[in-house]
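Protein modeling request. Please complete all fields; requests missing the sequence field cannot be processed.
Requester role: graduate student
Desired output: 3D structure, token encoding
Chains: 1
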Amino acid sequence: MATQDDIGAPSPLTSSALAAIRRTSAVDTVRARISLAVDLGLLAPGERLPNVQATAAALGVGEITVRRAFTALEREGVVQRRPGRSGGTFVADQPRRQTVAEVAAYQQDSERVHRLIDERVVLEVGFAHLAADRLDQAGLDGLDRCIKEMDEAESWAEFHAADERFHVGIARGAGMPSALVMYERVVKELYLYFLPYPMSYLRCSNDEHKHIRAALATHDAALAARLIKEHIAQLHQTMYVGFAHSADQDIDG
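Delivered output (253 residues):
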């Protein structure tokens, strides 16, 4: 998982100008991602956020960064923190919207994100085609473990970790180490723009994982490639839903 401190040169496939988020501090990227998810309706009023440790792992930053971001978001009226055993950090019941100026960096980088998605599609389609012939039973068992973890995940943070391992498992199963390095760089860059998703959407996403796994198990390379292409290409709508439309538009792309 990429951390804000790991941000270096662009991926070898992406040759755009310096990304706007590279000029944004780690704390402010967390503020922007949580605030943007609230603005777009991906996080609902009153929804409990994952704990600091899980949020830090999912967003690729340190725990201190998350704590500072939560403190700032509470001042800004986006979240509220409640003490006690049943406490934690929650989206405010009536969250203030469009209050975090750093969200603009994500909007400015939208074209870059679309290019990264296209690059990921190209690589994963190739991996799926090869993995249909090369992925062994141990590799399939690893995908099954990831699917089970995603079925049991209680938050977007837990789901994201297993989702990442699922896709890397297919990439490794293709048996192309040099292409895997390229893929990891593209995904590392793309995950810097990761936003929380509603669990209802993620459950549907995991159903797609199950169909992909089934195609790999039957060595149907054409079907596995088509399914993973459709699965990843959806990110063109879901990662930036609401940027070109109203913020209350559903994430049904």
